[in-house]
Specification:
mainly alpha; 0% strand
């Protein structure tokens, strides 16, 4: 169950990271509320996952999921560059996440 909590914590991290763009410096109320709610849920789920998982592994995977998801959505939603080198680096992060899961 801890791994499920961790994956959802990572997904909510993507939500708040992307949500920050939509808050326009916290000047838009609805995106701000949704972003803050996503932050709270993400940290709460991470806390639940940490009951059974090593903190270094869980934190690295949580941030990895957030990093990859935010980078991919940045390319898709905001037209950020999708260069071969950038995609290769995202692939390295994914391989690190998989590796940590396999050894944990």
């Amino acid at each position: 169950m801890s791994w499920i909590f961790l994956v959802f914590a990572g997904l909510f991290e993507i939500g708040w990271a992307v949500g920050l763009k939509y808050t326009d410096g916290f000047s838009r109320p609805m995106p701000t509320v949704l972003t803050v709610a996503s932050m709270i849920v993400s940290l709460g789920l991470l806390g639940l996952a940490l009951r059974d998982l090593p903190v270094g592994t869980a934190y690295a995977i949580w941030t990895g999921i957030g990093t990859v998801g935010t980078a991919v959505l940045g390319m898709w939603l905001f037209g950020e560059p999708a260069t071969a080198m950038r995609l290769a680096c995202i692939g390295l992060i994914v391989s690190g996440i998989v590796g940590l899961k396999l050894v944990a």
